[in-house]
C-alpha cells in the first residue's frame, strides 16, 4: 500500500437540513453514497493515511498479536452440552479462523460431559458444520442460525458472507450429510422447529432492516411456498421466534423498546393460528417461558424492576403472582425446568441466580466468592434435568463453565478457559492482578460504580496510565469480563476501568430510564465524572487516560470529546453512532423508527430535536483542542452506518485542525468487525498498540 503522510481532505458539498426552524449545513453528507467511487476512494485514502501514521507501531502490533496467540489454547474444545442422545460442542484448530461444530452420541451410563486431551476431536465425533470450509473464498463469514431439530435429524443454519447480517438459510440432513435444496435468502436471526421436525419457522426483515415477519417453511418444499405466520405492521415493533425448552410451543416475541406482545403456536400443530398470551399495552413489557400447565410471565406491569407471575397455558388470562416486585432487584429472565425454576437477576450492580424448587422447598441464591464477577446460565436445552450449566467470569478469572446440581446445591467446575504462559514464560496467576470496585459522584449527586483491574502493586499516585471503557444505552450492562488481549495492557502497567454509567442496566430499570430520552446527557456526564474520579483518587492522570467505547458507546465517546476534551489523552471510538440526530431523523434508515422510544422522535417533537441537537457529536464539533481520536468502522455495518465516523473525522479536521484524528475502515466486515478469530486479534492488537502509544507505553 502506498503510504500517505498528509491527512485526506474530504470535499465539501453543502447540504441543508431544516427541522423545527433549525437549519444545519452538512458538508459531508455525500459520504453516505456507499456505491460512489469517490466515497470508496476517500475511505481508501483514510486507511492509507492511518497505516502511515501508525507504521511505527507495526512491531508492537505484532508483539501484541503474538502475545494473545501465545496465551490462547488455539486447538480447543468447548464443554459438551447434552441434548437428547447426543453431546454437542465446538472445536477450534490451531491456524484455523472459525469453529468446527460437532456432536457425539451419548454412551451407556455416560452422565459426565466427555473431554479430550488438548482439544482433540472426541472419539466417534460427527462434524455438523465446519466454519472454515464454509468460509473458503470469503473475506467475511458469520453464522446466524444453528438449530438442530428435536429429533436430531435436521440442522437449520444460515450464513452471512458480507457482514450486513442478511443471512441465507439452509437445511442439512444430518443422517446423510446432504444439504437440501431448501434455501431462503435474506433471513434474520431466529428459527424454531415444529415438534415433528417437518416445519421450520424463521424471520425476515423489511427495507429498514426491522425484523417484521415470521414465516413457516415445510421441509422439502420451495421457499416460494412459505407462509407468513405473523406480519408486524407497527414500525416501532420487531419480531423474533424460538421453540420453548419443553418443545411444546413455538413462541413469537413482538417487542418495541417499551412494549411487548407474545403469541404462541403449539409445536405439535405448526399450522395453527398463533394465540396471544396477553395483548400489547403501551409501556408493559413481558416475556413468556413454558412450564407444565402454565406460562411463566416475567413482566413490569406495576413493577419497575419486574416481577414473576404465571397464567394458564391452555387458556391464558389473569397473571398469578410468583415473585413480587422488589425495588433494586432487577429480574432479568426465568428458565424453567421440570422441577425447578432459575431466575437471573441483578442487585447492587452484580448479576445473580436464584433457584426456586417447584411444589415446595425454599428458594436460594447461588453464592460466588469474588467481590466483582459476572454469572449467567449457559445453554441448557434439556427440560427434564436436575443440573444446570452456568458461565462465570470476572476481571481476573477466565471464562469458567460450571454444572450446578439444583437438588444437592453442589457446584462442579467443568472447565476454566486455559490461559497459557505469556512472553515471560510464567503461567497465568490471578493473584498477579487486583480487581476493585470504586464509586464516582455524578454532577447531580448520583453514585456511579466503576470496576477496575490492574497488576498487583500498581501505584495509586497518579503515575499509572489507564483505559476507561463505557457504553450506557439500551439497558445493556457492562458486567465484568475476562480478556486475554487485555493482559498485554495490564502487564505494561495500564489500569483498565469500566464505568457503569446510567443508560445501562447495572443498577436496575431506573438506572436505564435515567440515561435515555430527555435524560440521555446523564450518560455522558456520568462518564466524565468517572474519568475525573480516577484522577482525583490517584488511579491515573488526565494526560495518561484513554477512553474507549463502541456503537452507542461510540456516541458516548463523541459526546465526551466535546464535553470534556481535557479529560483524556486519547479516545477510541469503534463503529460509533456519532451522527445520531441525522440518523434518527430519517425513518428510512435501518432501525430508526424502532429507536425512537430509546432516543425520542426528533422528527415530530421539537423538544427532542433541540435536546439531541445539544449532544449529537458530529454537529457539536468546535474549535477546541481535542485529544487524539481513533475511529474504527466497517463498510457493511447495517447498525451504525460507516459514513457517520467518516463524516465525523472529516468535520474534526475542518473545525479543529490541530488535532490528531485517524479513521480505519474494514472494507469487508460489519458491525462486529473482522469475523475470523486471528483477524479479530489483529484488530485488537492495532487498537491496543495505538492506546499504548498515546499512554507513552509503546
TrEMBL record:
Peptidase S9 prolyl oligopeptidase catalytic domain location: 481-696
Task: Establish whether keyword Kinase is in the entry.
Answer: no
Q: Mind listing the UniProt keywords for this protein, alphabetically?
A: Hydrolase, Protease, Serine protease
Mention one GO biological process in which this protein takes part, according to its record: proteolysis
Q: Determine if Membrane is one of this entry's keywords.
A: no
User: Which ranges carry the Peptidase S9A N-terminal domain?
Assistant: 8-413
Q: Which InterPro entries match?
A: AB_hydrolase_fold (IPR029058), Pept_S9A_N (IPR023302), Peptidase_S9_cat (IPR001375), Peptidase_S9A (IPR002470), Serine_Peptidase_S9A (IPR051543)
- Coiled-coil stretches are none
* SUPFAM superfamilies per the UniProt record, alphabetical: alpha/beta-Hydrolases, Peptidase/esterase 'gauge' domain
UniProt GO MF annotations: serine-type endopeptidase activity
Enzyme Commission designation: 3.4.21.83
| Residue spans crossing the bilayer | none
The UniProt entry, under Pfam families, shows: Peptidase_S9 (PF00326), Peptidase_S9_N (PF02897)
Q: Which domain of life is it from?
A: Bacteria
User: Its family?
Assistant: Belongs to the peptidase S9A family.
- For this entry, the protein name equals Oligopeptidase B. Serine peptidase. MEROPS family S09A
